[in-house]
Protein: DUF2759 family protein
Amino acid sequence: MHIVLGVLCLFIALLAVVSVVRQMKFKNMFALLFSALTAVVFGFFSIATIISEISG
Structure:
């Protein structure tokens, strides 16, 4: 069941990366900061969850 959580977090991290690219185009630094922080945090937790489930 945790693998589903990891995949959902990975999907959110990918959407945050798309948002980072868009905010760089618009030069919106405040939104860029929050998008980058979201991408890092959700990316870390998704990778850690998936590795934890695979390794047992």
In short: The chain has a mean pLDDT of 96.
